[in-house]
Amino acid sequence: MKNIINKWYKNHSLIYKILLFIGTTFLIVYLFPKSGKFKYNFDKNKPWQSENLYAPFDFAIQKSPEELQKEKSAIVKESAVYFDLIEEVKDFVFEDYNKKFNATFHDSLGRKKTELFRVGRSVLNEIYKNGVLEEDYNYPNDKNVILLDGQNQIASTTYSELSKIDAFRSLLEKQLEDRGNSKFTAVFVSMFFDLIEPNLKVNKSITQNALNEELDKISSTRGNVERETLIISKGELVEGHKYDILKSLESEYESQVWSSSNYTWVVISYSILVALTLLMLLLFLRKYRIEVFLDNTKVTFIFFNILLMVLLTTLIVNYNSKYVYVVPLCVLPLVLKAFFDARLGLFAHVLTVLLLGFIVPNSYEYMFLQITAGIVTILTVSELYKRANLFISVGQITLIYIITYFAFFVIHEGSIATLNFEAFGMFILCGLATLFVQPLIYIYEKLFGLVSDVSLLELSDTNTKLLKELSNKAPGTFHHSLNVANLAEASANEIGANAMLVRVGALYHDIGKMKNPTYFTENQSTGINPHDELSPQESTNIIFAHVLDGIEIAKKNNLPDRVIDFIRTHHGTSVVYYFYMKEKELDIATDIADFRYPGPKPFSKETAILMMCDSVEAASKSLKDPSSTKINHFVENIINKQMEDGQFLNADITFKEIESIKKILKNKLANIFHLRIEYPE
């Protein structure tokens, strides 16, 4: 059991990567569409570029959305509206009319009363012929209307034949005028306003059900294509009926209901492809970025960003695929370049675009656009901490999007007459969204504990609390650190290393000397050396302690690990030679290991550069009567001794790069000591 636990502990990092790999693969496959994918690309009114296409199975020809909408509109227009007719209302109105008429008109009118009574009855019969509406429903006049008595259909007419509740006015006025009784119009109108009651009310439930029944009868297909039927020949134009058949076949592939067996195979196939893509990324990290591969936090960060881009694109495609170019995919290489390097950023970007090719429409066009934009991003964005650089680069990326899309559009359409300017707006929105990379980098720094050039720029400010404290407590050390920073930055620029990182590392590499500043020669302004009162071994231990003290101070002040690495490694496993020789004078059997720094040795170009510059700058203070020849020998001796001591074996730095650094250091020291050519008097 103990052996199993030990084995698990030794391999926990690898086990975590395997679980991360499986989990990311599962999540990406889960986001992918679980259907077949049509393997041919085609455009309307363009030649068919592939081989002759035969129907792989029987399928129906789908009607276009426009055709279906046209049929639905026709049915909605022709469908009938059902009204409930309440016959009792008419009987009540006529009965009430008799009472009101007799109460309003006196018998003294004689035959005129009988005539007026008939006029009123005639108007009532006319408006209640088909019924009186409860309200004006604003249907077309020719709209079919069916009258219901309960559930029974009793009449069929048109909407124009139904009476509105105030329709009696015009009828009354006309009939009374025709008979020379216009003087009674006001009395009749007043009486009818109190008398008329609606007896028609639309039955929404039956009307909607009847409409739904008719709509359900619409067929979404028109005709069938049998298996092995020739659909289109190579070079034939994709137009008319051929285009409809191809769209139907494509739809059949992408929307058919899969059996459990087919579904399983689709998921397995997706899993294989996604796993291969992510495996390529892990192999790239293991071969070319081993320090990233060994750091589980960094690997998790890379996988998280790839998954985030797949998720965002999937959400947009599911909502409306025409907005797919709004997703700021170039944020991925920007972020990875900010925290790692350009090559890793581009490699991860290309793999992500390949994954997204499964879910986006026009996948070839999409991948070409995004890979081109990713390359432009890597080539144009430098020194991300400078705001102007980011704005300029985003402008260039947006321009590349627009130009590339324009070229594809002209190839597909053959002209610019129908150019879609909405797409250009989406590219501009994508560019604006890409600007969000600055706050995103800050968020990532806090979430994953990483450090970018933006943070390094902040740390390089000599007015930071820690550097001001160093300048107050150990001014000599602070001045030494500034000189080393200048030398290291110039050296890093010469060999293409991270100049900002090495400068920050140089500024903070000796902060441990704040604890006992007077024990270091650069801070001994009074001429009193406290080491004179100590044994060589005690002095050595104090010298050693500045590394551990520096690490402690750095962690207390939340300096990033990338900066703390410079504090750990700037002396490597070198020997405090001065005190070793003093001890050896006292005891010939002195072990040199007691005077050797515990390490570790530099493990990157940047930490190796700092070790060289630190040693050269510190030792240069002892140069007497410096000349070009003396400086050249001096630099060669110090760095060659470090190489012979194996200090750079773990650093990814070449002999050629070391020679370039030597050249820079020689030139810089010559400038520092103001060496000039001696002119004859």
UniProtKB/TrEMBL annotation:
Indicate the segments forming the HD domain, all copies: 477-595
Name of the protein in question: HDIG domain-containing protein
Q: Which UniProt keywords apply?
A: Membrane, Transmembrane, Transmembrane helix
Signal peptide positions on this chain: none
Please give the start and end residues of each transmembrane region. Answer: 14-32, 263-285, 297-317, 344-360, 366-385, 390-411, 423-444
Domain of life where this protein originates: Bacteria
Alphabetized Pfam families for the sequence: 7TM-7TMR_HD, 7TMR-HDED, HD
Q: In this entry, which stretches build a coiled coil?
A: none
